[in-house]
Design a protein that fits this description.
By secondary structure, the protein is α+β, with helices and mostly antiparallel strands. It is built from 5 helices and 10 strands, in the order βααααβββββαββββ. α1 (about 20-25) crosses α4. The radius of gyration is 20 Å and the shape is globular. The two termini are about 30 Å apart.
């Protein structure tokens, strides 16, 4: 494994996830289990489903679960809003405006910085938004070397400073960059003739 650290004293972001996000993670297994149960109920209520009623029941149910669990921990989240669609879901805190979402095959999040270059050609596989952090996963037809070199060369030109990089093998690379109060982690991997690119952007507190 090759690890390089051009900056001996990199600034590590001190990120704090909102309480509702922590609750969400803690309830994720319950979430999946309930989805299975709801799936059985959906099959018994086909007419109700066609009008979108079941999705609303599920959304409201999880809103109450998160709010109730937070209150048990002594936290008042205010109102939490959950929206499901056919390609993912999103959870937003009405009080703070923070959003957690997971989407498949969607566009790049609006909060993702426009100045971060996107390798082309590439296709979005999934996106995750959690408050000030955004993760976008791409599949690209470019070679591992092309994608790796693209970010090695283009990010410094955009004002990003490399903090460290790791190359555990010839088909995997990961690097961290910083620009003022922003961090960007770039991961490139190649497996089964597919090159995957992950861009993880976040803002430091």
């Amino acid at each position: 494994m090759n690890v390089q650290n051009p900056n001996p004293n990199p600034t590590t972001p001190n990120k704090k996830f909102p309480t509702w996000a922590k609750v969400l993670i803690g309830l994720f297994v319950v979430f999946v289990f309930m989805l299975v149960l709801m799936g059985v109920a959906f099959n018994m209520c086909a007419h109700y489903l066609t009008h979108g009623g079941a999705e609303k029941v599920l959304e409201k149910g999880f809103e109450k679960i998160i709010e109730t669990q937070a209150k048990k921990e002594g936290k008042d989240l205010g109102d939490v809003n959950i929206d499901f669609d056919k390609e993912g879901f999103s959870i937003s805190d009405k009080k703070t405006g923070e959003v957690f979402s997971i989407q498949a095959g969607k566009k790049i999040p609006d909060s993702f910085p426009k100045e971060i270059p996107i390798f082309s050609p590439s296709t979005i596989v999934s996106t995750v938004v959690m408050g000030p952090s955004q993760i976008v996963v791409f599949e690209t037809s470019g070679s591992f070397g092309e994608v790796f070199s693209f970010y090695q060369n283009s990010l410094p030109q955009k004002g990003w400073t490399k903090m460290f990089d790791m190359n555990p093998d010839e088909q995997t690379s990961s690097a961290a960059y910083q620009k003022e109060q922003e961090m960007l982690h770039v991961s490139v991997s190649s497996e089964n003739n597919k090159v995957m690119l992950t861009l993880n952007h976040s803002k430091m507190n």
